[in-house]
Amino acid sequence: MTLDWWGLGLQAINVLILVWLLSRVFWRPVAAAITRRQDAAQVMLEEGKTAQAKADAALAEVAETRAGLAAEREAILAEAKATADTAGKAALKDAQTKADALIAAARTAIDRDRNTARKENATRAAELSVEIAARLLGRFNTPAVQATFLAQLVEAIAEMSASDRAALIASADGTEIVTATDPEDAERAKIEKAVKDALGGTPSVRLVTDPDLIAGLELRSGHFVLHNSWRADLENILKEVENAA
Amino acid sequence: MNSPLDSTILFQIGPVPITQAIVTTWAIMAILVIGAFALTRRLELRPSRRQATLELMVTTLDTQITETTGAAPTAYRGFIGTLFLFILVANWSSLVPGIDPPTTKLETDAALAVLVFLSVIWFGIRAGGVGGWLKSFAAPNPVMIPLNILQSLTRVFSMFVRLFGNVMSGVFVIGIVASLAGLLVPIPLMALDLLTGLVQAYIFAVLAMVFITSAVEDGTPNSAKIDLTPKKKDT
Fold first, then answer.
1. CB-based contact (8 Å) between B199 and chain A?
2. If B124 and its partner were Cys, which of A180, B64, B133, B138 is the partner (CB 3.0–4.6 Å)?
3. Which domain holds residue B137?
4. Cis upstream peptide for B140 (omega within 30°)
């Protein structure tokens, strides 16, 4: 067994050359690629951390802004509520005042209407009473009543002043004796005679029928009326009642 | 059959005989360099499957260097990695019919051992200077100087003999079996030879790394010991 020294040297040189070549074309490029990727990853990691920090800061800012907004919202809500309360109270007070005024006005109107109605009712009642009384009295228009009215008429004429009687006698268009019913001739003559006697002189009288008198005898001329009937009495009563109401 | 210890001289360049092992070595070199160049032409930031495979190889080698020696792998990657790749491809070249692996020849294994021996000196001097390298022979005490010198020779010699013996014997056995029963019978032995070739390449590379690291550590002053912690960006 011999050792080929030339061969040994050549193989050593071959391996050295291979080491050099592979270092250049294989080990270094691949290692550089790995390093490059690690550097890129590191850069991306740093960028990610920076972005994360920025995002955290932005989030904190947003949270702070949101908190500020919430506080501002609360303040605005409180202010709006206070304003609404004030406005509501004012409106309520105003409405209360108006309502009180309306109630007062309504009460006044009601009182006025009530008084008016009461007066109207009283008037109607009085009128109704007068009408009832007139109808009732109409049924008692008897000769005795007629005689009483005649007596009262004669007495009233007697109580008149002399000048009034003279004026009545001198009346150009004559004097009317108004009765409620058309009397019989005898009764008629009796009435005319009694009136002429009471007046004295020669007055021109004529007998007129007016059912509205109900019962009674009245003396009328152009400028003079002597009331002497239940109608006149009832009207007097009605006036007194109305005046009393 | 020829003796496995004999080298077949193909041609002669002046006084230098060019054996088949040298030519095979050139072919392996060409394949490795061209293949490496082709594979590493376009390395992107976003790796393809091919690039990822290459990076896995480099990362695995770096991890092995770091775990074996504790040193940063950058300075040793090219030498150790190339040793491993060359020995592995040379060992597996026995699968090609008619090719004898260069590692079955004494010259190739001796050349590899000599390179490891010289690299130990080179890295030792580079780390601690000539004084530091010489001082490494006095570790742990000067009494050990003769033994350390003897050890530095014998351990390299043992590497050379181990590689040569394992690979040569494998090829020799396969040759004998093939001459007796040429069909199918040698296949299990060839598979075993593949495993042996891988293991021997690994052992050779790891031992070279251990020897280099030993020289570097022993020759470096205590205050300037190499950082055994892997750095972040070491690749």
1. no
2. B133
3. 9-224
4. yes
